[in-house]
Design brief:
The structure is a single chain. By secondary structure, the protein is an all-alpha fold. The protein has a single domain (about 5-225), classed as Orthogonal Bundle (MetI-like fold). About 85% of the residues lie in helices and about 0% in strands. It has helices spanning about 5-45, 50-65, 70-80, 90-115, 115-125, 130-160, 170-185, 185-225.
């Protein structure tokens, strides 16, 4: 057996364990919390009073205008200087959540704005409140349009979690770095890590296609019922 293949086989369990224990949970939690934050931010920018809308706009401006790696460093290495100490995983979770929240808010804001005003008027005409109209009429239509860009954000987040290695989160990429430190085989180990990220992204891309098809059928049914 070639040396490189043997090394990849021997290191695979450690990389898979790091991915299952840290990369996957970090990705899922960050995206879930970030999507909620993005929805709140988008609704605030669209419908809240001006002072709140300005705060939401400022948050999006700062996060989108600064590198994610810098944000993680500020949270993990910078906040202790003002007395705020965070472990590596919570710091990474906060950083990724804030980042996803800013980018997803722009997606959600755009898709909500794309829903025709007539849908609001139709909802109000049958006695719905603003909350009911948003929940029952606007968001279901907006969700169908938001699936592709939000799915892309999720897939990008899987790869971005490798940046957590910079703040000592022992996820998949840092696990590869640790093995490299003992084997002195960076090319083999980093290629293996890249292949694992590629495999995970490919699975998610396949799921994205299925989800888009399902929402497309749902949209077709809605159009047929009108």
């Amino acid at each position: 057996m070639p040396h490189w293949l043997q090394l990849m086989i021997e290191s695979l369990p450690a990389l898979l364990w790091a991915g299952a224990k840290f990369t996957v949970p970090l990705t899922l939690l960050s995206f879930f919390l970030g999507a909620i934050l993005g929805l709140i931010t988008a609704v605030t920018r669209l419908f809240a009073p001006l002072p709140l809308a300005m705060i939401a706009r400022f948050y999006v401006w700062v996060i989108r205008g600064t590198p994610l790696l810098v944000q993680l460093f500020v949270i993990f290495y910078g906040l202790p200087s003002v007395g705020i100490l965070l472990d590596a995983f919570p710091a990474a979770l906060i950083g990724f959540t804030l980042n996803v929240g800013a980018y997803s808010s722009e997606i959600i804001r755009a898709v909500i704005s794309s829903v025709p005003k007539g849908q609001w008027e139709a909802a109000y005409s049958i006695g719905m409140t603003w909350n009911q109209a948003m929940r029952r009429t606007i968001l279901p239509q907006a969700a169908r349009v938001a699936v592709p860009p939000l799915s892309n954000t999720f897939i990008s987040l899987v790869k971005d979690t490798s940046l957590a290695a910079a703040i000592t989160v022992p996820e998949l990429f840092q696990s590869a770095q640790r093995i490299v430190a003992t084997t002195y085989e960076p090319l083999i180990l980093y290629i293996e890590a890249a292949l694992l990220y590629l495999a995970l992204s490919s699975v998610l891309s396949s799921l994205q296609v299925r989800l888009e098809r399902r929402f497309a059928r749902y949209g077709g049914m809605m159009e047929a019922n009108r």
